[in-house]
Records
---
Amino acid sequence: MTDLKPLLKLLNISFNDEKLLHQALVHRSSLNEFKNTFTTSNERLEFLGDAVLEQWTSQILYHKFPNFNEGQMTNLRSLIVRTQNLADIALSLKIGNYINLSKGEETHGGRLNISILADTLEAIIGAIYLDGGQVASDTFLSQILQSSIDNFSLKTEYKDPKSIFQEIAQSKQGTTPNYQVISQTGPDHNKKFISAAYIGDKLIAQGEGNSKQKAEEQAAINATTELLK
């Protein structure tokens, strides 16, 4: 197995069971090539980490901003946990260097893929929670997300990716975008959604996520990029 000591140093955390961290770094594309080492991907840990992340963020915002209403807290949370922000954090921690990817996925830039990076960070959060409990995961989330909370909370207006895409679509096309779920696969505890963003009947972009909301958010991010080209 890969030596993860440099990554542990960057994460500023220790594991009682380091196998959990190894598991968190297994992208599903690599299973055939690492079948003698891993039999399952990091998707179950990602599912858990997503829930831990949302619970922690909601609680922090509730206590830190007593004057914020529900809408303000919801929008601020969406900025903090959105795919791009998690991917930026993963990049700063050099997590991409340690992900187990198939050769094909790596060739196509998988180590810099924002969806893979964000999902892997969530899997690491899940692994930390399983290994050390809520205290360990709270400590880790505090150290990686505090600056995001501080920076985003200074905004006078909070806009999530769907709101941004809607503004651009209305400005450029004069209409409000809509979203459709193209497919959903996997068992109930580990769903994968693919959603598409449309302007009228025209497909602008698609996005993937482990919830309908995340898939739509990613579709909005990709669609915004398309409209701004």
---
Amino acid sequence: MTAEIIEISRLALHDQVAARLRAMLVEGHIAPGAKLNERELCLQLRVSRTPLREAIKLLAAEGLVDLLPNRGAVAVKLTENDVVDTFEVLAMLEGMSGELAAKRITDEQLAEVRAMHYEMMACFTRRDLSGYYRLNARIHTAINEAAGNPVLANTYRSINARVQSLRFRTNQDEAKWKHAVEEHEQMIQALAARDAPAMRKVLVAHLIRKRDTVLALLQAGEIYPQPHKAS
């Protein structure tokens, strides 16, 4: 999932446009708080306004975009309080989904998670952050789905969408990225052992660490750069 300009086929056009926009938002090609300029995006994605607007509505429903009166669509921008509140809920949801997944995951599902993990590790070795994050997100989704609770899965998906771009940025520090990889290896071990308490513990710790990293980056002005003050 990259933000490179490519020709988009007519099949399921608004879904493809949504996928491109989602990547642009998550990877910071559209800055948090920035207005989505329909004219520019139509030119960049080579589509008309109709599929673009359908895609924007879809991303608004996911929580990646806010639709504001008199401003149109704006990339979501969270405050520190938003981050604390969102990650607090996400940590509980991921912990619960991990615990349930450890109890309910099938051999086929486990094999698929393992395969994605190996692909993700290859991206880590190449320092391919975009590919790594795409697989990372798929692994978390697969764990969530293995929990076998549609209500939990839908709730997780809607809340997680709003912090995707922030989660992407937490691995841009080499030491933190390496630690995240180690935690993912612990997740695989806990899943394979069907160890529900261990799975809950590592996922909660994983999310709390993400939260703390995001807050540190916010406070340092590295996610939402502060405007220069006039001298």
---
Amino acid sequence: MSTIKLLFLTKFYSPHLGGVEKHVSQVSNLLTKSGNAKVTVLTEKYDNRLSSDEVSAGIRIARFKYPHIRIIGLFLIWFELLKKIKLVYESDVIHVHDVFIWILPLRVIFFWKKMYITFHGWEGRYPIPLSSLLQKKLAYFLTDGNICIGKYLEQLYGIKSTVVTYGSTEINLSLRKLRKNPKIIYIGRLESDTGLPLLIGALRSTGYKATFYGDGPLRADCTSVGVVKGFVKDVSYALENCDICFAGGYLSTIDSMAASRLTAVITHNFVRKIAFEHEAFSKLITICHSERQIINFLKHYSTESFKIKLAHEWAISQTWEKTTKLYLNLWNA
């Protein structure tokens, strides 16, 4: 198998923390270590202390800075990417992570290039804004194939997935007995679209406290019912020392299941419902639609413990090597 020259485009990349960042980093590292690809990541320079061009663990990271101004900012992104046109020209495969609008002009210029996209999720607003819907549709029609993180994205955006996955994990912790006074954690963005306000309300009603691994607009509200640790690079320690994990997204859900912890998600709106209630692992987790259901779960959580072993067995099969192979198969590499 020959080594391909691969260009990843993503809004943020390591050392920035987040689900997409982890996904791109893990796949990039495995592609590089295996020799299957020579990887370049083109991303935003969100911190002036970061280098504009560096090589880390064999991966080239090219960063550009732009002002976050509507419309004008997009034209400046296009201008910056035109200055990086050599990276696109030299690549065998271009793979975009959500930000297809960035590379739209270069897609027109390099119409013959192999270009793919991963749709990582939704923007937290429903009904979906028309501009977002149009961007997803445009990306779908102008790329050679796609990976959807969750089957629900087909219904949400009216597209057809080439490949569906949910993410991966490197965590593998053994089962242990649930404690009478459970230690509760939440992993994910501290924002309303994850259903977090319902969890905060349930914690207030029951008197339970939680530790929150994430950040966002609801930080102050979370502090009123526990401790906010912020985003962390490795959630293994947090999971090892908890009994119940409320997961904000797919990656934290899979990590929690792989850690043999009782895993719950909140599906308070249409998007969360279709994202979690009909996927392959839906019966392996506890799904709460309302604050009342969360309260009942916290009062009777031990009755859900039968799910833990089956969830663990499914989750540990979702490896980053498996996800990386999906990318290679998509590119026919």
---
Amino acid sequence: MRHGCKVNHLSRTHAHRVAMLSNMATSLIMHKRIETTVAKAKALRVYVEPLISRSKEDSTHNRRIVFSYLHSKEAVNELFREVSQKVAQRPGGYTRILKTGIRHGDNSEMAIIELVDYNENMLKETSTKKAKSTRRSRAKKAEAAPAAAAEVAEAQPVAEAPKAE
């Protein structure tokens, strides 16, 4: 029974699961975005977000801990040099999971997991949005409708019936 067990085993042994998550985390750090299944993306988020939090403070101890998870010098350097600079002001939530539909081969749900501060399209959308949007109530529209109808009636002269002589 799995009472209280919150780890998604992903139908793999412990060693296989750890190796897979390490490889996926390395790919995510290097490429900033990867496509995978929704279950793997959720497991990867739990795996990689603490590593990104550690990268905010660049120390030998933190580098060694992150290296023990990633096993890639290039990924550790990328994480501590570039990614940590982008997420320095963010208190958490460094990844975003976007569902993309199903895979035709086995009907599994697919998703894209990406680092939040590296998606230029979403950053442009949030910066161009209005700061405050106004809401209009229906009461004002209901009052304006009869007044507008009266104005239209006054503006158009009524055609008079011809006079009988």
